[in-house]
């Protein structure tokens, strides 16, 4: 097994840089860099680091982790050096001179942690999401997954399934005895509970996926109702051309921003009207499609009392778009003056927060697919009488296999390459 090394703290110039070395020769490599010194385990020590010619490279804070007590599970040394590119380059060059060492590949430290059993696959996915989190809600969601949120669920489900299988085994053993027990109900009850919890996780996955990738909020309405002006007000800069000429916006203009901890893309869609302009028709068609698929729509009206277009969801917001023209109006919005903009932002944030709250932990399509496979088999087991216990036991085993696949215990080797390719070198 190779000993791998890399910068673990990012590549930009900084006051401190962490170089991680992990593998069977990690301690040996570190001791060669600090002749005559010792490395007590899990105790930060200040050491002078020298190159092979005896020249001082840097003065570092060094921490040694024994095998089984490190992030990777392997012997690991972390060298906290000054963040000068010259120092980093020199130290990496010296480490690379030792036999059996090589530069780490993307995500290789985390892969070692997975292979050693320090992390399960869902934790690896959670860590990947955590490293790229831009908003507070993305951080919270990723941390729930990284903190074994999914693994804990799977552990509980496994226990319930094994308990049900044990009940089935007892029922078979005592089938000839005159015991007044409802074996079928004792078997099915824990399975129904697991199925209900799995279905709840699957149903909430799309919302949690939107937290990770970002929600889309479409601004829709007729031409010249203030959609582009409102978009500019929300963005705090001019991102869309505004004009009194109807049909100015012909394509979907998208602006991403952090809205109350949620990543949100506001979509300015082409105004809806009768037109002979083919390009404008294409823009309106594209706008309709994006609006229909958006997570939320803000429908702007020109005048109080105007009828709104078909609202696709009960959460959709309908407002007069130029409330500055109506001095006594309450509840509208004006991108021109800023009236009602903060209230609109609060309302959108509240709606998104209500959707996310209590939605579980399953995020990715892979995780949802594994649960769907388990749910299909489990639904069949729950709804079928226990007349052929051997076949039922096999189905329960299939459900457990699907759950094991979810957390990476079986059959995920091809997927691992895809996961770790998105990690940085030092992770």
From TrEMBL:
Principal localization reads cytoplasm
State where the protein is found.
Answer: Cytoplasm
Question: What binding details are noted for the cofactor?
Answer: Binds 1 potassium ion per subunit.
Residues where GTP binds = 224-229, 243-249, 268-271
What are its cofactors? K(+)
Q: Which GO terms describe its cellular component?
A: cytoplasm
Q: InterPro entries from the xrefs?
A: G_TrmE, GTP-bd, GTP-bd_TrmE_N, GTPase_MnmE, MnmE_dom2, MnmE_helical, P-loop_NTPase, Small_GTP-bd
Keyword check for Hydrolase, yes or no. yes
Q: What class of enzyme is it?
A: hydrolase
Q: Where does K(+) bind?
A: 224, 243, 245, 248
User: From the UniProt record, which GO molecular function terms apply?
Assistant: GTP binding; GTPase activity; metal ion binding
Q: Which family does it belong to?
A: Belongs to the TRAFAC class TrmE-Era-EngA-EngB-Septin-like GTPase superfamily. TrmE GTPase family.
Q: What is this protein called?
A: tRNA modification GTPase MnmE
Q: Which organism is it from?
A: Roseicitreum antarcticum
């Amino acid at each position: 097994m190779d000993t791998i090394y890399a910068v673990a703290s990012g590549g930009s110039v900084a006051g401190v840089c962490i170089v991680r070395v992990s593998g069977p020769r990690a301690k040996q490599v570190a001791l060669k860099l600090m002749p005559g010194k010792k490395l007590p385990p899990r105790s930060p020590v200040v050491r002078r680091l020298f190159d092979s010619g005896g020249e001082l490279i840097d003065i570092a804070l060094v921490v040694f982790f024994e095998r089984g007590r490190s992030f990777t599970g392997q012997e690991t040394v972390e060298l906290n050096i000054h963040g000068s590119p010259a120092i980093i380059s020199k130290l990496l060059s010296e480490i690379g001179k030792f036999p059996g060492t090589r530069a780490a590949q993307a995500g290789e430290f985390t892969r070692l942690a997975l292979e050693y059993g320090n992390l399960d696959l869902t934790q690896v996915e959670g860590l990947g999401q955590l490293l790229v989190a831009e908003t507070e809600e993305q951080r919270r969601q990723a941390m729930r997954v990284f903190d074994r949120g999914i693994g804990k669920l799977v552990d509980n489900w496994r226990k319930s399934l094994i308990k049900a299988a044990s009940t089935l085994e007892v029922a078979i053993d005592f089938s000839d005895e005159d015991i007044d027990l409802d074996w079928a109900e004792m078997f099915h009850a824990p399975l129904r509970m697991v199925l209900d919890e799995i279905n709840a996780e699957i149903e909430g996955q799309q919302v949690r996926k939107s937290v990770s990738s970002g929600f889309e909020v479409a601004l829709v309405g007729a031409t010249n109702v203030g959609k582009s002006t409102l978009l500019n007000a929300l963005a705090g800069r001019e991102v869309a051309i505004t004009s009194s000429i109807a049909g100015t916006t012909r394509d979907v203009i998208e602006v991403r921003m952090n809205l109350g901890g949620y990543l949100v893309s506001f979509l300015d869609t082409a105004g809806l009207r009768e037109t002979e302009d083919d390009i404008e028709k294409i823009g309106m068609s594209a706008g309709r499609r994006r609006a229909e698929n958006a997570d939320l729509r803000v429908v702007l009206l020109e005048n109080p009392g105007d009828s709104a277009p078909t609202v696709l969801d009960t959460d959709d917001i309908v407002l007069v778009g130029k409330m500055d023209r109506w001095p006594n109006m309450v509840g509208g919005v004006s991108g021109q003056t800023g009236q009602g903009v903060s209230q609109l932002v609060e309302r959108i944030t509240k709606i998104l927060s209500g959707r996310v709250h209590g939605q579980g932990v399953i995020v990715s399509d892979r995780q949802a697919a594994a649960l769907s496979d388990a749910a299909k088999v489990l639904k069949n087991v729950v709804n079928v009488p226990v007349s052929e216990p051997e076949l039922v036991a096999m189905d329960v085993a299939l459900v457990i296999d699907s759950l094991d696949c979810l957390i990476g215990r079986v059959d995920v080797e091809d997927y691992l390459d895809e996961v770790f390719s998105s990690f940085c070198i030092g992770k």
